[in-house]
Amino acid sequence: MKIEIIPIYEKLEEYVAELEKGKQDAETLWEQYAIAPYWQTLCQYALMDLSERKPVPIKDSAVLKSQLDLLHNIELDQLQTEFEKIASLLPNYDDDTITVALYPITDENTTVKERQNGVVGTALFGNLIIQINPLCADFEKWIPYVFTHEYHHTVWGNYWFVLHGGALNNRFIDSLLIDGEADSFALSLYPKLRPAWLFDMSKKTEKRLWNDIYSKLVLKTDVDYCHYMFGEENETIPWCAGYTIGYRIVQSYLTSHKESSFHELVEKRPEEILNESGYFSVV
C-alpha cells in the first residue's frame, strides 16, 4: 500500500499574499487555494458529501505566516517512513493509495491548542486530513499518533463497511469502540504520550457516566453522537467522555485477552468486545 503525503502548508504562500491584498474574503481565497485543488482527491472514496470536514480558513495572515515558517521544518521523509511503518503493523484490506493532507489549523481553535497538543485528524473514507498548529509545544511528536488513530479508522471502516457492508447495526457501541480501538492501537505504538481525552477522567466520573448514562445507550441506534462522544462543557457529560469510555472498554478487553492482535480486534463485533471485556465489573 502506498501512502502519499501532501503538505498543503507548502502551497499557501499565494493564499497569504492574496489575503493581505484585502480584495477578496478569506473564505473565497481559502477555498480557491487550500481546498479546491485537493478536495476531489481527498474525497475520491467517500460515499457521501463530506463538506463539513473541510479545514476552515485561517484569516490572520501574520499568525499563518508564523505557522508556515515552523511547518516548513517538518522532516517529510522521516514522517513518510513513520507512516509506512505504522501501516505495516496493521495492513489494510486493499492496496488503495492513502493520501494524507497536512494542513495548518487556526490558532483560534483553543480546544486543539490546549487539549489536543495542536494536532487533530479527520478520516475521509480512506484518505486523511491532519491539521497542525505548530505554535504548540511538542506538536511534532503528536503527528504520528494522530495518523495512527485515523489510519486505524480506514482499516476498521474498510472491513465493516466495504467488505461487510450492513454487517453492523449502527449501534452506539460501534461509535465508542471504533475510537476506543484506534486510540488503543495508537498508544500501543506511542505509550509515552498521554492524550488528555483518555486520561483526564477520574474513575469516579467514569463509573457515574457508565452506570447512569452510557450503559443504557450502548445498544441503541438513535443516539446523539456529538453529545455523547465529544461531551459538553458541563458536569453531566465531560469533554470527550465517549472517547474515554470507548478506550477503557477496549483496554479492559485487552487485559483479559492478551493474545488478541489489533487485526483480530478490528474483525470482532463491537458488542462482542463489550460483552467479553469484563468492563461491567471494572466500573
Mean pLDDT across the residues is 96
Number of strand elements = 4
Instruction: Report strand order across the widest sheet.
Output: 1-2-4-3
Q: Beta-strand level of the residues, as a percent range?
A: 5-15%
Biggest sheet descriptor:
4 strands, mixed
Look at the helices and sheets and give the structural class. Answer: alpha/beta
> What is the chains' assembly state?
single chain
Global Rg? 19 Å
Indicate the low-confidence ranges by residue numbers.
none
Q: End-to-end distance, in Å?
A: 40 Å
Helix content: 40-55%
**Total DSSP helices:** 14
Order of helices and strands: EHHHHEHEEHHHHHHHHH
* Backbone shape: globular
Q: What are its keywords?
A:
single chain, 283 residues, alpha/beta, four-stranded mixed sheet, 14 helices
In short:
This protein has 283 residues and is α/β, with parallel strands linked by helices. Helix content is 54%, strand content 8%.
Task: Write up this protein.
This protein has 283 residues and is α/β, with parallel strands linked by helices. It has helices at residues 13-21, 26-42, 61-71, 76-89, 110-115, 139-163, 172-189, 196-199, 203-212, 225-230, 241-256, 262-266, 270-277, 279-282; strands at residues 3-7, 98-104, 119-124, 127-132. It has a four-stranded mixed β-sheet, with helices on both faces. Helix 4 packs across helix 6, helix 7 (172-189) packs across helix 11 and helix 11 (241-256) packs across helix 13. The model has no long low-confidence stretch (mean pLDDT 96).
